[in-house]
TrEMBL record:
<protein>
    <recommendedName>
        <fullName>Glutamine--fructose-6-phosphate aminotransferase [isomerizing]</fullName>
        <ecNumber>2.6.1.16</ecNumber>
    </recommendedName>
</protein>
<feature type="active site" description="Nucleophile; for GATase activity">
    <location>
        <position position="2"/>
    </location>
</feature>
<keyword id="KW-0808">Transferase</keyword>
<dbReference type="Pfam" id="PF13522">
    <property type="entry name" value="GATase_6"/>
</dbReference>
<keyword id="KW-0677">Repeat</keyword>
<keyword id="KW-0963">Cytoplasm</keyword>
<feature type="active site" description="For Fru-6P isomerization activity">
    <location>
        <position position="598"/>
    </location>
</feature>
<dbReference type="InterPro" id="IPR046348">
    <property type="entry name" value="SIS_dom_sf"/>
</dbReference>
<dbReference type="InterPro" id="IPR035466">
    <property type="entry name" value="GlmS/AgaS_SIS"/>
</dbReference>
<dbReference type="InterPro" id="IPR001347">
    <property type="entry name" value="SIS_dom"/>
</dbReference>
<dbReference type="InterPro" id="IPR035490">
    <property type="entry name" value="GlmS/FrlB_SIS"/>
</dbReference>
<dbReference type="InterPro" id="IPR005855">
    <property type="entry name" value="GFAT"/>
</dbReference>
<feature type="domain" description="SIS">
    <location>
        <begin position="283"/>
        <end position="422"/>
    </location>
</feature>
<keyword id="KW-0032">Aminotransferase</keyword>
<dbReference type="GO" id="GO:0004360">
    <property type="term" value="F:glutamine-fructose-6-phosphate transaminase (isomerizing) activity"/>
</dbReference>
<dbReference type="InterPro" id="IPR017932">
    <property type="entry name" value="GATase_2_dom"/>
</dbReference>
<keyword id="KW-0315">Glutamine amidotransferase</keyword>
Length: 603
């Protein structure tokens, strides 16, 4: 949530900041701003809306250093006064911030009663506090920043500039991501390497509760006591082409299309040429030792946990419980004797999931983060990490991460099951079956035009819809409905098909779209078809998505049959396309739906 950039020592500072913000727009896109200076003239430019508005306002403003921010509003609405950067009382200090300062009202009351504030943000209070310590209490800047950090509670990534020292950016971080980018004769600050990959592929991590003094030719990392910390840089394995849209109109469509490749990449990563599992033996051992696996996640990742649950249990004989991270952080149920936590998270930065991990670590519970982002917070803080290797996912609506998470869990489950000597796991030819699933995805992807036409007929102006299914199809229905509502704003519920008649069927009336998913077995299919009859009899407009082996001539979308353990991977593809086309046909911004952001770094 919110993206930060900064650069010092480059004549193209304005352009570097704005290009960086464009790459971070996925983190928040309701307003943005930059502060740029050439040492003599300082420019503070802000705009409500997308970075394009900011770029237009910035025009040909020049500078050698600056900081910038793209916002996902938490404190105060999206407006120019609330957009970052914020400035201290006299305007000497300028600050951008990602995170939430929990005690900002208390700080205002205790330290800043005589200060005037322009907006409602917590960030403005932080920069006033730093300004007060320097200008009223006569502290030097570093001491003032440290003193402010010792008072501030909550999550933050800060980048601070001082008009009296325009060649330095001070940064600090706690629980919010922030990296240093190392250029040739200039240095940068960013929330995500993607923002600065045009400029450099050499980055430096900052740990929580560290402060960094960034100048054009030096970077000094300190802990809050002032001890200098040695830090090596690393090369980010990111390619410019990974983060571009290419010829695609939207990232979401590109990412949907990438799924067969991702499946094959996972095969190459987690199995060797003979098809043997290639998973870190320490992870396998840790799962083997657990008497219950708890998968904790949010949104689509939470749905992926459900999609993998039954397969994982069957292959390992270990019970799996799925928890919604935002609840578990505060409302942890009674755990088994030897629990292991698996954090599923595309971004590896989701604050709700991190909250659970902090509790797990405090209780010495072994943890595994399955994430798409190496070096992300959840990856660094968990006992073990498995990567999704899906390439950057930029559209807010998660697609390839969902299928990659199910596939990664399948590799883990097979490795554990084999280590347990479980026949079911030994006989399950995952490499072969996942290759078939990749082909099934390809086949569905070749039907885009037909799917688009069906969407145009079924959902032209609908305000609400239902996805129904049984077993794994129910879990896919949950994900399908999240995807549809997230980007088309159609209110949609994913429902267990048999449960409708216990209340919800009263919502079915003439023309309500009901999308039914049928895979796995004849018995389940027969029951779901019965439920379809029930809604059709009450006027619902039904669209069926059915596995080939169970399909009839009257079904609408046919999905090539795959192994039942992997059916969620193939069944979800048409639903991703349905959401995409519904959003597109309504003229919406598919990649950046309203009120949302890609990485949710606030609780
Ligand atoms: O990065 P994470 O997987 O932890 O993100 C969790 C959710 O915020 C995310 O899946 C969200 O629900 C997506 N926008 C759904 O498409």
């Amino acid at each position: 949530m919110c993206g930060i950039v900064g650069v010092v020592g480059n004549d193209q500072a304005t352009d570097i900041l704005i290009q960086g913000l464009e790459k971070l727009e996925y983190r928040g896109y309701d307003s943005a701003g930059i502060y740029v200076t050439d040492g003599k003239t300082n420019h503070l430019i802000k705009a409500v809306g997308r970075i394009a508005e900011l770029r237009a306002k910035a025009g040909d403003t020049v500078g050698k250093a600056g900081i910038g921010h793209t916002r996902w509003a938490t404190h105060g609405p999206a407006s120019e006064v609330n957009a970052h950067p914020h400035q201290s009382q006299t305007g000497r200090f300028t600050l951008v911030h990602n995170g939430v300062i929990e005690n900002y009202l208390e700080i205002k009351k205790v330290y800043l009663t005589d200060h005037d504030f322009k907006g409602q943000t917590d960030t403005e209070i932080a920069v006033h506090l730093i300004g007060k310590f320097v200008e009223e209490d006569q502290l030097d800047v570093l001491s003032a920043f440290k003193k402010a950090l010792s008072i501030i509670e909550g999550s933050y990534a800060f980048a601070l500039m001082d008009t009296k020292d325009p060649e330095t950016i001070y940064v600090a971080k706690n629980k919010s991501p922030l990296l240093i980018g190392l250029g040739d004769g200039y240095n940068m600050v960013c929330s995500d390497a993607m923002a600065m990959i045009r400029e450099t592929n050499q980055f430096m991590e900052i740990h929580d509760k560290e402060l960094v003094i960034v100048k054009a030719n030096s970077v000094e990392v300190q802990d809050y006591e002032g001890y200098v910390q040695k830090r090596d840089s690393y090369i980010a394995e990111l390619d410019l082409s990974d983060i571009g849209k290419g010829t695609y109109p939207f990232y979401m469509l590109k990412e949907i299309d990438e799924q067969p490749t991702v499946m094959r990449k996972l095969i190459n990563t987690y199995a060797d040429a003979e098809g043997n599992m290639n998973i870190d033996s320490a992870i396998v051992k840790s799962v083997q030792e657990a008497d219950r696996i708890y998968i904790l996640a949010a949104g689509t990742s939470y749905n992926a946990g459900f999609a993998a649950k039954s397969m994982f249990e069957k292959l390992t004989d270990t019970p799996v419980e799925i928890g919604v991270a935002s609840e578990w952080g505060y409302n942890m149920p009674l755990l088994s004797e030897k629990p292991m936590f698996v954090l599923l998270s595309q971004s590896g930065e989701t604050a709700d999931s991190r909250q659970v991990l902090v509790k797990a670590n405090a209780a010495d519970i072994p943890s595994l983060t399955i994430t798409n982002v190496p070096g992300s917070t959840l990856s660094r803080e968990a006992t073990y990490t498995m990567l999704l290797h899906a390439g950057p996912e930029i559209a807010v609506a998660s697609t390839k991460a969902y299928t990659a998470q199910i596939a990664a869990l399948a590799f883990l489950a097979k490795a554990v099951g084999e280590a347990n000597g479980k026949k079911e796991a030994i006989e399950f030819d995952l490499v072969h079956e996942l290759s078939i699933a990749a082909q099934s995805i390809e086949s569905t992807l070749s039907e885009k035009e037909q799917i688009s036409e069906k969407v145009a007929k079924l959902l032209p102006t609908s305000r609400n819809a239902f996805y129904i299914g049984r077993g794994n199809d129910y879990y896919v229905a949950m994900e399908a409905s999240l995807k549809l509502k997230e980007i088309s704003y159609i209110q949609c519920e994913g429902f267990a098909a048999g449960e409708l008649k216990h209340g919800t069927i009263s919502l079915i009336e003439e023309g309500v779209p009901v999308l039914a998913l049928i895979s796995s077995s004849e018995a389940v299919a027969a029951h779901t078809r019965g439920n379809i009859q029930e809604v059709a009899a009450r006027g619902a407009s039904v669209l069926t998505i059915v596995e080939e082996d169970l399909a009839t001539d009257t079904d609408d979308i046919i999905v090539n049959t795959v192994h039942p353990y992997l059916a969620s991977i193939s069944m979800v593809i048409p639903t991703q396309l349905i959401a995409y086309f519904a959003s597109l046909q309504r003229g919406l911004d598919v990649d950046k739906p309203r009120n949302l952001a890609k990485a949710v770094t606030v609780e």
